[in-house]
Specification:
17 helices; 1% strand
Length: 421
């Protein structure tokens, strides 16, 4: 389902297994049944690319928490601190598609190096100057968010280069979606730990250093240095032209809104149940179930099911899994039942990601993933903003999930789409 990419002046033909740099892909790469996470990681470059990408994206989870702690330490109110965190959350939605387009046009090293340098400089300045001067702090926050390197899009563009067949690529997408759950659980905890032991400014500096190190490790691999996207048309909005792309992106906005609303729901339920532990345990359980759901998905996914039907089935299941949470439940019951939508989240995100890449016009794969990330991040911000005034009820993620299922169900194979694996 992933577009063939041009490397060293040659194009991988649709349906033909791509070859890694100078290494023939033979029968030894074939695996009986669905490919597993281990099958993906044993291929050359895959482990380094994944780890570097995860390290480079740690700041996305660390910075919002560290910003709030740093702003409060400098005497700002919680409202001001939250506004800075929200600015950081929205800024990548603007920068990622632009840096993704630059990657499609000029290759991965330039936007990765440029974005990492911008993030490191902005967060370094913020760590040294603090947040006392609000205008300077807001400018640094906006630059740090907008400069986030296109590591997710770059990684997904490279999977078809370093892996032998479509089965491995599908599993690699699930692996990437699963590791994102780890990032968003561990990175806030890392920020709090560093802020407690050292300072919130140190946590900001560490986030910048992680982005710089991860991006450099990613962009200096052989596949990242030599990868080039196929020639694209001159239309600047070409990636948004396919009829299937718009409902997919809109559906991902509502998918992100479910997660944003869940964070608020966890706080609201913990207050109603007088169980403060639930505020952190709820999103952690959701993410943990997502990781397990991703592992299970790669083992049982039926390759014969059309992608559009996959989206419809998973979207409907995701919405249905929120229904039991509308009932009055004790804290432990809420924690157990949130595992249900969590387990479906990663498979749904994986199939949606594959659909985005599949219907993206030729030469726009990295930019398309940037738009996907932007849609999810905008949904996260909107879900958080709406859930608070509505009391943090689980009806908010339920409604968002239902709209997500409806929009993903509208996805149809675009006429005249480029050949896909």
């Amino acid at each position: 389902m992933v577009h063939a990419q041009v490397r060293h002046g040659t194009t991988t033909a649709p349906g033909q297994a791509p070859r890694t740099h100078g290494e023939p892909t033979g029968a030894k790469d074939a695996v009986p049944g669905p490919a597993t996470f281990h099958d993906v990681l044993r291929h050359r470059y895959c482990c380094r690319l994944l780890i570097a990408s995860v390290a480079g994206r740690l700041s996305l989870g660390m910075v919002p928490v560290a910003l709030i702690l740093a702003a409060q330490a400098d005497g700002h109110s919680l409202a001001t601190a939250s506004a800075l965190a929200a600015l950081y959350g929205i800024a990548p939605a603007l920068g990622l598609p632009l840096l993704g387009r630059l990657a499609d046009l000029r290759g991965l090293p330039l936007p990765c190096h440029l974005g990492a340098a911008l993030v490191a400089a902005a967060l370094g300045t913020l760590a040294l100057a603090g947040t006392s001067q609000l205008a300077l702090a807001a400018g640094c926050v906006a630059l740090a968010g907008a400069g986030c390197p296109p590591l997710e899009g770059g990684l997904r563009s490279l999977w078809s280069v370093v892996l032998p067949d479509a089965a491995h690529v599908r599993t690699a997408y699930a692996l990437d979606s699963s590791t994102q759950q780890i990032v968003y659980v561990t990175s806030p905890a890392l920020a709090v730990t560093v802020a407690t032991w050292l300072s919130a400014d140190a946590a900001l500096a560490l986030a910048g250093a992680a982005t710089l190190a991860g991006s450099l490790a990613f962009a200096t691999t052989g596949p990242a240095r030599t990868w080039r996207a196929e020639a694209r048309c001159r239309d600047r909005l070409a990636v948004l032209r396919p009829p299937a792309m718009r409902p997919l992106l809109a559906g991902l906005v509502f998918l992100g809104a479910t997660v944003g609303a869940l964070d608020v729901a966890g706080i609201a339920v913990s207050e109603r149940q007088d169980a403060s532990w639930l505020a952190g345990a709820l999103p952690a359980a959701f993410s943990g179930a997502g990781l397990l759901g991703g592992i299970l998905f790669v083992r049982v996914q039926p390759e014969t099911v059309p992608p559009a039907r996959h989206l419809l089935l998973l979207g409907t299941a995701f919405a249905a899994c929120w229904l039991p949470l509308l009932a009055p439940l004790p804290a432990l019951g809420v924690l157990v039942l949130v595992l249900l939508p969590g387990a479906v989240f990663v498979p749904l995100l994986t199939v949606a990601s594959l659909a985005i890449t599949s219907c993206a016009p030729r030469g726009t794969s990295t930019e398309a993933v940037g738009w996907m990330s932007s849609a999810i991040r905008l949904g996260l911000a909107a879900g958080t903003a709406l859930a608070g005034p509505l009391g943090g009820r689980f009806a908010v993620p339920l409604m968002a999930a239902a709209l997500c299922a409806l929009l993903l169900g509208l996805r149809a194979a675009p006429a005249g789409a480029p050949a896909a694996v």
